Batch of 2 targets.
Target 1
Amino acid sequence: MKLDILVLAAHPDDAELGCGGTIAKQVALGHKVGVVDLTRGELGTRGTIETRAKEAKDSASILGLSVRANLGFKDGFFVNDEAHQLAVIRLIRKFQPDIVLANAIYDRHPDHGKGSELAFSACFYSGLTKIETKDEGKVQAAWRPKHLYHFIQSQMIKPDFVVDVSDFWETKMNAVRAFKTQFYDPTSDEPETFISNPGFMKLLESRGQEFGYSIGAKYGEGFTVRKVIGVDDIFSLR
């Protein structure tokens, strides 16, 4: 299956937190969007591999994803090396996305920055014909996505552009809340974490409003790029 957009996220729930509104909006516009989580999030203080897999499946249904997969890299200890790059390259060549969305270039969680660099390397190397990969025994054709954008997570990073997700904010939040073990639950007896604190949801809301306000919208999601952005029509800019 060819995807229009492939989201590469270090952990289950990264995609929802960083670009859930953008995903929902693009799905509503008729685009095929898939999310591939690099790890199972097994080092997370709350929940288990099994509960997070179930939550990721529930979230995928809410967002209307065409694909949700997990590469099973070692949480906290995956690296940007040949073996990990080849695994991601196989997926890029399999799904042939025009756009890849990936983790923030740096963040409070080291895996986010590592995931960002791994996505960048794999997107480039995926276009090199002399790197051979196979899918189900068949040699894959080289494929390089047209664009790589990095969604912003907990760290305050100035966006290069902001997507208006006002009409899809509630869908985003429902997808986030699907990860019940990870976020605030007054009935849970698990230890409190940075994201399970009730203040985190308020932070997420205010961040969305801040990005939205910057472009004259109610809610927005910010992204950064590694190259200059080009436009065809300056009247399309806000």
Target 2
Amino acid sequence: MRHQQQSTSPSVPPLANAFAPDYLARLREQEEVLTAAESELAGPWKIEPVPGKPGAVAILRLWEDLAIGDPPVAVLWHLATARLLAVLLPVLDREPLFHIEEGAALEGYPLVAVYGEQGPQVAGWLDRHEPRWAEGLHLLEAIVRSPLALATLLEAAGPGAEEQVGRIRARHQQA
């Protein structure tokens, strides 16, 4: 009895791309759409060991493979750093979820949030015009919207931090 994984036909190398070269050439001549930057880093990302570099890991898109010559977006020495970058990449080129308006109002500098169809809304006011605060909120908001990003972030923190998070969450549930 033969299993599905066993085959009598010779193995066929994987296609580099399913589209014909002339079609791909025509695509490269066209202008990119506004969301191209976001789709470039959207992933999903995977992390795999780099052959010949013990301890090094590569970050690639899920459908890419080092073994067939796909270039990784990054090669890093620490798995935890690779996990952080894998969480960060899809967030970076997204349309910003928050921004701070230039002029101060009576309450302070308006922090504007963009929530889909609701459009821009004042989420509150800050005592100073600090764009890094809005950038940080954008990063955190995008991460908490993704269960995979949250799980990867927790995994990157390590088992000790994960245990402490469990204890904190348990105590918060009892309160």
